[in-house]
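1st attempt posting a full record on here, be nice pls
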Amino acid sequence: MTRWAHALWVCAAACSAPPDVAPAAFDLEERVLPAAASFEVAMPPAGVAGQLDPSILLPKKPHSDDVVARVGEVELRKSHVFDRLVELNRRNARNLIDVLIMDAVVAAHAAEHGIIIDTKAIENLVTNEEELLRERVRIEWGGRKTFEDYVLSQFDLGVDDYREFLKLELARERYRSYVIRFLALLEDRVEVRLLRNRDKKVVEDVARSVRDGADFATLAFRHSEDETRSDGGRMPPFSRTFEHPIAKIAFGLGEGEVSQPFQMELGGSEHWCLVYCLQRMPGRPGVTFDAVRDEITAGLKARALTPFEQKSFQLRWCRDAAGR
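the predicted structure (as tokens):
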């Protein structure tokens, strides 16, 4: 299964996963977007054939509670499906709501800054993803199952519907990547390497070695307990608005400087950390998306949007909308 198609069965997983909390404990409250001008931008008309404008990130309008089945005189509606998903697994329901919130925020920023994706580029991505999946089916099934049969059995979709789903998912992912990377360019940022270890002495020894000329990336790979260790502790660039102790430390460093060891709580336990400043990146307020489209596209090709960047975006722009 490709990483894009994976999203197809995320909702279905809610039906088989055990509920993490009693259904009655879950109260869905209305979450209101912050009253900022950037979230009040008029969107292009939704549902225009062949267009992949920011409206694809938004729910279809007008919304209706359509009937999905009838049993005698009983009508089963979309809202009943959602209610049952909430009962079965509130976490999946909450996660899906968070996705909708994030996409609404992304759509507003895209419309505000004139960010439109290249439809042809998305169609090329769809073709590439389909070719990869076809090759996987050929290798794993050796002719015992056709591609059409595989898609139907795995996703409950015909090939044409699968391609359309893939097209929308890839387009939405591209919008998220463009918006998050573009907004980041507007502000002062810093790029650092991080080392995290529970043992204070290990961190102190690394700090001393780096100041004596040792390579921070090598030592981070060897000693760090953070998930960034595989890349020498390298983190995506972040701005001062990143609400994290690392940001406060990082913006106090010059390029090539290493911080003093400091403590940070993670997962209920204390860890010792070091931050090494790779580069300071001045913001470019006023730049247009068209002026940096190629730069952002090349950057995404070299390094895809990371979960860290998405989480930072959610914390800043979606926190108020999520109501928590």
